[in-house]
Amino acid sequence: MKLENHLLSILESMHDAVLVISKDSTIVYVNTAYSVQFGVPVHKIIGKKLSKVEPKARILEVLKTGQPLINDYSYLDSLNIHIFANMTPLIEKGELIGAVAIMKDISEFYALQEELQRYKTYSTQLEKQLNQKIFSLLESHAPGMRQAVEMAKKVADSEATVLLFGETGVGKEVFARAIHEASPRGDKPFVAINMASLPESLFESELFGFEEGAFTGSRKGGKRGLFELANGGTLFLDEIGELSLFLQAKLLRVLQERAFIKVGGTTIYPLDIRIIAATNRDLQKLMREGKFRQDLYYRLNIVPIHIPPVRERKQDLPILMNNILSELKSKYRKQVTVTQEVYEIFERYDWPGNVRELSNVLERMIAVCSKSYFVPEDVPPFVREGSVLSESPIEPSRQYASGTNALNLPALIEKTEKEMLEEVLRTSRTRTEAIRRLGISRKTFYQRLKKYNIQ
Predict the structure, then answer these.
(1) Which of 26, 56, 30 shows the shortest CA–CA distance to 43?
(2) What is the CATH number of the domain that holds 271?
C-alpha cells in the first residue's frame, strides 16, 4: 500500500484540525475537523491567502524561516480562538514548498482557567469574610488590641506555636479559638487544658491517657488522654506558668519529640498538634527565679502576643458590652439596652477582672433587671463606687469616715461580694463553672465560701 494514495483519508480521519498552505501562503487544504471545530466551511477558505485572512498567523513564520514551531500557542483574531499547534515546513527535493499546521482549539481551556481564577478570587474574598467573622469578637478601636488581633490573623494560617500574654480574664482562650478556627486545622478538635487545675499525680494520665490495667481501679479499655483527643487539631495550654518544674520537664519532652506513651503502655503515639499556650505570669521573671525552664519558654515563645487589659482599651467597652449582651439576651430571653449613664459608670471603673468580670457583672445585671434598659441602680455597688472584688482577704476593721457619718466600706464590699458569689453559684451548673465566671482562683473561691458560710 502506497501512503500517498491514502494521505487524504488519513488527514480526514484526524480529530485535530489540519491546515496546509503553499509557499505564497495560499490555503490549499483544511480537513473536516478544521471546518467543524472552527465553524468555517471548506469552500470559503480554500484558495485564499492566509497572510490576508490572518496576517499574524504563526505558520507564516515557518514559511519565512523554514523552521518548525512545536507546541506553539497563538490567538487567531479572525476566528476569535486560542490555539495550540505544531507547525512544520513542507520540503520537496530540498526546497520549501509550504507548511502544515496541526491545531487544537484551547479556548475552552482558557475559559476554564479564567473561571478558576475567578473562583480563586471569590475563595479569597470568602476567606477574608470568614476571618472577619471569626475575629469579630476581638474587634477593637484600641491600637494595642488591634495590633494583637492583626498578629493573630497573620499567624493563624501557619503552624507556629503561639504564646498569649495577658492578665486574667482578658480573653486569651477567645484569641486561641479564633487562631484555631482561622487555621487549616479549623475543622479539627480544639482542646483547652487549664494547667493549674491538673494535680501533679493525675498529670500524665489526664494528658497522655492510660492503658487498661495500668493501675488498680483503672477504666476497662483504658482512657484516651487530652493529647490524643487534640491530635490533628490545636492544643491550648492555659496558665502554663503554674506548672511545677517537674511537670514542665514532662511537657517539654512531649513537645520536643512530638510523641507520647500512655501510662502503663509501651506504644509510642505520634502527636500532630498545633500548640497555643497562655499565661498571666511574667515568665521571664519566673525563669530568673528558677521557677520556669528556659528551654520550655523558648519552645513556646515562637510568636508572642500581648493582649492588653480592659483598662487600657476602655474605648472598646461598647463593643465588648454588645458582644456579651447579645449572648445574655438569648440566654435570659430578655431585651435590654444600656443607657449613657451606665456606660459612663463602666468607663470610670478599671475592670481588674477584665472581660470576664465585665461579663459576670452584665449577667448579674440582666438576671435581676426588670426593665427594658439598665439604670445606674442596676450596676453593682462595687462598680459604681470604683472598688474591686479582690482576691486578698478584706480587713473588716478598716473604715472610711466622710464628715460626721461613718461608712463601713469594707462591710459594703463584703455584702456585695457575698451577693455576687450566691448569684453566680445559683446560675452556674457546677462550681468549676462558677470559678471560671468569677475569674478568681479555686483556692480563693473556697476561702470566700468558708468566709461567708455559703454551702
Answers:
(1) 30
(2) 3.40.50.300
